[in-house]
Amino acid sequence: MANWGQLRLQDAATPIIFELISFHDHAMTIVVLIISLVGYGLVSLTLNSLSRRYTYEAQLIETVWTVLPAILLLFLALPSLRLLYLIDEITDPLITLKAIGHQWYWSYEYSDFKHSVSFDSYIVPTDELTSGQYRLLEVDNRAVLPIQFELRLLVTAADVIHSWTVPSLGVKADAIPGRLNQLNVAITRPGVYYGQCSEICGANHSFMPIVIEAVDYKSFFQWLANLADQ
After folding, report:
1. Is the peptide bond before 104 cis (omega within 30 degrees of 0)?
2. What does the alpha-carbon distance between residue 207 and residue 216 come to, in Å, rounded to a whole number?
3. 110, 119, 164, 210 from 116: Cα distances, Å
């Protein structure tokens, strides 16, 4: 998750967010180049005393400032389209996790197994936090997922529109009543990843955090077996 004073994006935990961060850096390089060029032109125009009173056309420079922006847009559009297809591509997911938004908590369902597992995930009140837990981000039941596998996330809502968002995993989808939105994720390293509802869904919008705990597959199936026995 983010740290105090952190200026850049959160550390990537999936290939998708790694690609998104790379595209962000790529786009910022082009933006800085454009700002520098335009800034130099403005300063030069302001400070010099040269004039071209009898110049009525300049076809070369007009061609350059028409063609060059088009080329720059291609450098932005092609990687962007590639990323859009990567985000939507789901080949053979091992597990499907269904997240259901409520006012104001999340419910999770693991329905790929013989005994379906479901539970609710509520925020931990501030006066019940223990050492090492984060205020307004900790929940009583974390959603556990295995690492190094392709996973499918189904997102919906039971009442109003919510948004299931975990920045470190590069996933964000609106939870809309009556509709299933699909995401793919492949977590590369173990850890605890925090997110929050990103859609203003009512009075307690700020109090329905998301916590994903990524573990190895043996620990995941052991956790799932223990949960099913309860």
Report:
1. yes
2. 29
3. 6, 10, 22, 21
Q: Are the beta carbons of 86 and 17 closer than 8 angstroms?
A: no
Distance between CA atoms of 181 and 99, rounded to whole angstroms?
10
- Which string of DSSP letters, residue by residue, matches the chain? ---TT--SPPPP-SHHHHHHHHHHHHHHHHHHHHHHHHHHHHHHHHH-----TT----HHHHHHHHHHHHHHHHHHHHHHHHHHHHHH-----SEEEEEEEETTEEEEEE-SSSS-EEEEE-BPPGGG--TT--TTT-BSSPEEEESSS-EEEEEEESSS-EEEEEGGGTEEEEE-BT--EEEEE---S-EEEEEE--S--STTGGG-EEEEEEE-HHHHHHHHHHHHH-
Residue 4 scores a pLDDT above 80: no
Residue 211 CB-density burial (10 A; 0-12 exposed, 13-18 middle, 19+ buried): buried
Higher pLDDT, 201 or 53: 201
pTM: 0.84
